[in-house]
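FORM 7B: Structural annotation worksheet

SECTION A. Query
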Amino acid sequence: MTDPLEDENWRDRASCRDETIGPEIFYPDKDDHPTIRRAKLICRTCPVSTECLTAAHENGEPFGIWGGYTPEEREIIRVANKLPVRRPPDIFPHGTAAGYARHRRDKSTPCRSCVTAHTVDRREWKQRNATEKAADHAS
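SECTION B. Predicted structure
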């Protein structure tokens, strides 16, 4: 396995980078079990799920499905394997779809840059899906 902190290219090979998958599926609410299951199914077939899980542990990622595991499941793995507690830097990814998801999880009002990023991301995702559906119907 390649060290995910040294080889950032592993992210390019991740199944979640598929253009038909919206990023919000990997940042579901804690009680949204159908979405959690869908995210885990995607991770199950991902060629870099081990690298993803390692990166989540190394970076102390407190949110989202990483490597097929929820934050609570990653904590169980961390404790069972006696891994050190890692806290992510207090950097808020403003201006990104992930930043918008974090606002929602924190139940805070999203900032303008995060709302804009989320809106653009959703619009692009919907356009890709509409284009693919139209192509499928034309075939």
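SECTION C. Observations
The chain has a mean pLDDT of 84. The two ends are 41 Å apart (CA to CA).

SECTION D. Sign-off
Analyst initials: ____
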